[in-house]
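Input (Imidazolonepropionase):
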Amino acid sequence: MNSLVLRNALLLDVESGTYREGDLVCADGRIAETGPRAAAPAGATEVDLRGGYVLPGLIDAHVHVAGITADTTALRGWSPSYIAAGAVRNMGAMLDRGFTTVRDVGGADYGFAAAQEDGLIRGPRLIFGGKALSQTGGHGDKRTAGVRVYDDHPFCGGSSRVADGVDGVRLAARDELRRGAHHIKVMASGGVASPTDHIDSTQYSMDELRAIVDEARAAGRYVTVHAYPPAAINRALEAGARCVEHGNLLDDRSVQLLVEREAFLVPTLVTYWALQREGMEHGLPRGSWEKVAQVLEGGLGALERAVRGGVAVVFGTDLLGGMQRFQSEEFRIRAEVQSPLEIIRSATSVAAELVRMPGEIGTLRPGARADLIVVDTDPLADVTALAGPLRMVVQSGRIEVG
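Output:
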């Protein structure tokens, strides 16, 4: 594997929030050395950054790489090969935006992850959960009211599977874990894109939630939940969930539980902004579009409450279809509430903790994966510098952009 040396850089230590002038050496896909006048390995490619700002590669902890349309009901009937082609395009575009690792929380499987790891496709390192678990009539049940048949084949298009009862959810969780899932996603409340439930509903019984958590823990994995209202968030955390997706309507008790349980929150504010602007242009049914306002208004307030309460907040976007091009807009939206350093940490070191790769990604320390981005404007002064265009993207020591 070729080596890479970046000279005359400003290297961000995300833990301390300070820059250090010097060089960075990548060898065998990892960061080998940082410091002034670092020695270049034989045959290394050397790039003079002339004071460019270097950050760890970005991490988006809530994506759907196979979500190539916002019409998630129609997606279930599409050809898997067509969906895969769209996913490959999505993954390449994510890498171009500086996201060197992403966590897929519904739809992607081991095939996508292995294809990226083996170099068959270009894209971020993929941490996947397979299909999310949904109760009948829950957020992951995409049938309209008049449809009875549910196709639960593992290779059908779609991000969820329906499972009911303690035995049913245990079997479904075990099956996703068998296929390599890094986490289990559970639909614990209603949502925008589901046709037959309400956003403020709670879903799954406590016994079912605890059974899923038990199975994930037994396999050394964890549960993350889709949840909007405080009742759904709090029930899931009490049942042992380690992470909450969205959380737009959380309350003070939710914040308390997130902190006490050392759980993570992944707000996805940009998706509501994008859905309101052009969701129907990308296949979102009108009934789902009309639900967006219910969660859009609460999003920034929930983020502010969580940050003030000391919750571990992680970067996520949850965009579908052609709206995935707005992925970096999340930086601008969060800047209304969080400091630049807090936002950067949410997309690097804190996200690395969530995906259980601290020290491996989300840092520029020697020994970490050589994933990094280079920008010309100081993101600690203006975090929207990360919204692009980026000067350089490096993944596993290879220059992908720049």
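DSSP finds 13 helices and 18 strands in the chain.
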